[in-house]
Amino acid sequence: MGAEVILASDGVALNLLKAEFPHLKAVSLPSYRIRYDTSNMVLNIAKQMPRITYAVRAEQWVTDRLAREFGLHGIISDNRYGCFSRLTSNVLLTHQLYPKVRNRMLEWTAHRVLGRAFSKFQEIWVPDVALEPSLSGELSHGSRAVHPNIQYVGPLSRLHRRDIEQEYDVVIVLSGPEPQRTYLEQRLLEQAMLLPQKFIIVQGKTHAKEHHFAAENIEMVSYLTSKELNDVLLAGEVMICRSGYSSIMDLAALGKKAILIPTPGQTEQEYLADLFARQGIFLVQRQEEIDLENGLEQMSATRGLASGQYPTTEYESTLKRWLQGL
Q1: Which of 87, 126, 206, 255 is 20 to 30 Å apart from 272, CA to CA?
Q2: 46-63: per-residue pLDDT in tens?
Q3: Overall domain count for the chain
Q4: Each residue of 174-200: pLDDT tens digit?
Q5: Has residue 69 been placed in a domain?
């Protein structure tokens, strides 16, 4: 659409963006460095709250500096609450308008804190449909108004469905914070070695591109670009991944069946996993109770999401309108 784009992120995400868009300028933001060491969401966040609070403030300082340095006109922030500036038009991209917290008082507090964070942005773009059945359920659909300008822009995915020859029985895509990413990889690898199916494991490590075979039936790659990942997922019969919202949107785009394994302590992932399990769309296994053989045997009882049910190009009109107003 003719806009000059600058990328800003940190860590694994920044490495992936640089690999995906080597022609674009990329700058570093302060890292949140969130870890999920236990299954207690409250404890996980409480221990890290001082660092998270500082990271949000630090990214706001950095964003203001970048806005002046590059003469920015607009900012689209993907769930980074400090990425806004008084000099720009600011959009927050999020599906978590009504986050799930097990404790009622803490949930009320979280909603109040998010309300203040939302007020810093002129628009909120929700990557989901406005009406049911939606992909994010109660996370982005509620009766209480949280912002005066919410746009439902449809799900977003870099993946596209097309016919391709099947090469793998199972594609495992790992993601998320440590140490849970490594723990899940170990659990799945141990069980996959005892099964006859052909696996490929995308490790989600973006610091260097590595490719090897852990066993005769298990291919491993550190990370894949969008096109490579698209091809691998289409060449697999079943996908195993976390139940994060990005994964849900990718599954909707591809129409793939999947086993979802929520990250312990992430209430959003646990909610989404339960939402789709109740509908018989995806199979769900808890990380501490993974039974890969049994899960693959049960896949015929799930139906997946129909490819094309949730178009991933609806955002274009909103983006065009926003750019024209800058």
Answers
A1: 206
A2: 655 666 667 778 899 999
A3: 2
A4: 998 888 999 999 999 999 999 999 999
A5: yes
* Rounded Cα gap, residues 117 and 233, in angstroms: 36
Report the DSSP beta bridge partners of residue 126: 152
| Residue 20 is assigned to a structural domain of this protein | yes
Concatenate the DSSP letters of all residues of 29-40 into one string: ---------SS-
Please give the residue range of the domain that contains residue 240: 168-301
Does 163 map to a domain? Answer: no
Dihedral sign, Cα of residue 279, residue 281, residue 282, residue 283: positive
**Complete edge-to-edge strand list for the sheet that includes strand 168-173:** 211-215, 218-221, 199-202, 168-173, 236-241, 257-260, 283-284
Q: What is the pTM of this model?
A: 0.89
pLDDT tens digits, one per residue of 291-301: 999 999 999 99
- 283: domain CATH number is 3.40.50.2000
Bridge partners of residue 92, in order along the sequence: 77, 124
